Amino acid sequence: MLAVDQKTLLSASLRHQEDAEYLLAGSPDQSWHLAGYAVECIRKACLSVDTYRKVLSHELGEDADELLEILLALDAHSSRLHLQGWCEDGSTLAKWRATHRYDSRNEHAADATALVRETGLLHDRTMTALWLAEPFDLESL
């Protein structure tokens, strides 16, 4: 059974992904920004240990993936959800940083569509894997 904060994070991830898709045409900068948070929230939601969810923060920057690897090694339940390797070379997600919210207008417009598509696929795949591992009511999110 998912904890309350896991459901809250899943709800946030759904909202961020949907907003990123909606904003893509009119505001690619906002779309870019929200797409990255969608992935961050869903990865946190998949961690089964409350302390691990709190430790994995967007403020960790490039070290977040390395920290995630360590947390997944300690969290066997979550390690089967394949949350790692999302920022490999060539992925648009590897370019995303939380600090981009301070970037100039249209700085990421060219990559926004690719990022939203990529995060959408990761989001759907992860939501499905999590549901198969821990069935939950999607309507409750």
> Stretches where pLDDT falls below 50 for ≥5 residues?
none
Number of helices: 6
Number of domains: 1
CATH topology, anyone? Four Helix Bundle (Hemerythrin (Met), subunit A)
Major sheet: none
The CATH level-2 architecture is identified as Up-down Bundle
Order of helices and strands: HHHHHH
Let me know the number of strands: 0
- Helix and strand content put the structural class at mainly alpha
The value of Rg in angstroms is: 15 Å
Indicate the percent of residues in helices. Answer: 55-70%
Could you tell me how far the N terminus lies from the C terminus, measured between alpha carbons in angstroms? 14 Å
Name the average pLDDT. Answer: 88
Q: Choose one word for the global shape.
A: globular
| Main CATH class | Mainly Alpha
Strand content: under 5%
Describe this protein's structure.
With 141 residues, this protein is mainly α. The chain has one domain: Four Helix Bundle (Hemerythrin (Met), subunit A) (Up-down Bundle), CATH 1.20.120. The chain contains 6 helices and no strands. Helix 1 packs antiparallel against helix 2, helix 1 packs antiparallel against helix 6 and helix 2 runs parallel beside helix 6. The longest helix has 25 residues. It is globular, with a radius of gyration of 15 Å. The relative contact order is 0.19.
